[in-house]
Amino acid sequence: LSHTFWEVKVPFGTKYLDAALCFPSPVQHVDTAVIVTHGAGGDMNFPQLVALAHALASGGFLCLRFTCKGPNLAYRVKAYRAVLLTQYDILSQSHCDLFAGRSMGCRAAAALARQLSDESEEAVQGVICLSFPLHPAGQTHTHRQRSEDLRALPEHIPVLFVSGTEDNMCDRALLEETVKEMKAGVEVSWLSKGSHGLTVKGRSEGSVMEEVNVEVLTWLSKQGA
């Protein structure tokens, strides 16, 4: 599928957030939107997010990615909510929305999904977590606090985790323990020898990104998206 790209400015308080919309052509066939943001460093032009946006658009999905260099999680969640509202304004048609993020971005996605699920059952159709930072490096004791929003998600919001087996911010056993406590339907895809940045020694960045994108698209098709 060919796809189209637009740059968007999202009003946020007294300023604007940079965002980019990637969608298949023709756009009228799109009924599912994936909103995605970056981790604590970088921005929406992080290569993995750009590759994911293009893969989603090629797969028939709309992808809205945005930059928010927020200092803390609460600020990032507010920004995410502003982008969600703008998405409705731009597209003026109802979509199923899935929230996605990388590292701190997926903490914001999960936190907003939890907030919105308290307000409406229809608000969010799923959460995609790339390299969920379950704890800071070397501080596994914080995982309960970091996973609180995940454990509070209702059962009708499915979650996909894509994490590296060597991610120093996501102990494999602790994530699997967290998943058991979640009410939502969860799938975990482990990237063999992957780091927190979802890179693998000895493998090209392109081949790893393609593997991650295939996992995301396969999961979306299982959700009936």
Automatic annotation (TrEMBL):
Pfam short name (any one): Abhydrolase_11
Database matches in InterPro entries: AB_hydrolase_fold, KANL3/Tex30_Abhydrolase, NSL3/Tex30
Coiled-coil blocks: none
Highest taxon of the lineage: Eukaryota
Domain KANL3/Tex30 alpha/beta hydrolase-like: 32-211
Gene3D superfamilies: alpha/beta hydrolase
Protein's recorded name: KANL3/Tex30 alpha/beta hydrolase-like domain-containing protein
Organism: Mola mola
